[in-house]
Amino acid sequence: MSKGLWAFAVQWYARPGVEPTCLALQAAGANVCLLLCAAWLGQRGVRYQAERCEALQAQAGHWHAEVIAPLRHVRQQWRAEAAHDAALHGLREQLKALELAAEKELLQRLERATAEWPPEQAEDLEQWLASSLKGLNEEALQAWLASGGF
Questions:
Q1: How many CA atoms lie within 13 A of 124 on its CB side?
Q2: What is the top-level taxon of the source organism (predicted)?
Q3: Sorting pLDDT into bands at 50, 70 and 90, what band is 67?
Q4: How many CA atoms lie within 13 A of 118 on its CB side?
Q5: Are 17 and 49 in contact (CB under 8 A)?
Q6: pLDDT at 87
Q7: How far apart are the C-alpha atoms of 5 and 7, rounded to whole Å?
Q8: What is the structure's pLDDT at 21?
Q9: I need a labelling partner for 54 at 20 to 30 A (CA). Which of 23, 38, 42, 88 fits?
Q10: With left for phi above 0 and alpha for psi between -120 and 50, is residue 135 left, alpha or beta?
Q11: Which of 49-53, 118-122, 131-135 has the least mean pLDDT?
Q12: What percentage of the chain's residues is helix, strand, coil (to nearest 5)?
């Protein structure tokens, strides 16, 4: 049995070079949780279908916009001042943990949404990744592929 999406994401994110690539993609507008889900599906051999991708994008987009992005915005907004204010630094760390918990929840929701999609030995990894990076350039896809050793 394959490991779950959260375990995959944690293991993959720990690889050398992955974190800076994810942060750069995030800064460019990518939803890294959706990208990790796409990589997980592609590696598991789940066949790509546009309808599946659209459903995941809708679910991830809503959660990201309503939950993750506001937390991230406040955390980033406090960065400079928290460097000189111990109390604010502590609050910022709590906010960072909450943001991570929200990302974990999103990954769990995406995994539940894909529970009925069987691995079919499809070789659709690049198609999953490209669809999750829609709107970003080809360099973003290549950076992702290079960072993960896919």
A1: 22
A2: Bacteria
A3: very high
A4: 1
A5: no
A6: 97
A7: 6
A8: 86
A9: 23
A10: left
A11: 131-135
A12: 75, 0, 25
CA 64/CA 135 separation, integer angstroms:
17
Furthest C-alpha separation in the chain: 53
The pLDDT of residue 124: 83
Tell me the C-alpha distance between 136 and 133, whole Å.
6
- Provide the percentage of residues in the chain whose pLDDT is more than 70: 88
- Which of 141, 73, 131, 125 has the alpha carbon at shortest distance from 102? 73
3-state SS record for 88-106: HHHHHHHHHHHHHHHHHHH
Structure tokens that stand for 82 in this block: 């928290």
Residue 76 to residues 18, 32, 96, 108, Cα–Cα distance (Å): 20, 17, 9, 25
Residues 65-93: what's their mean pLDDT?
96
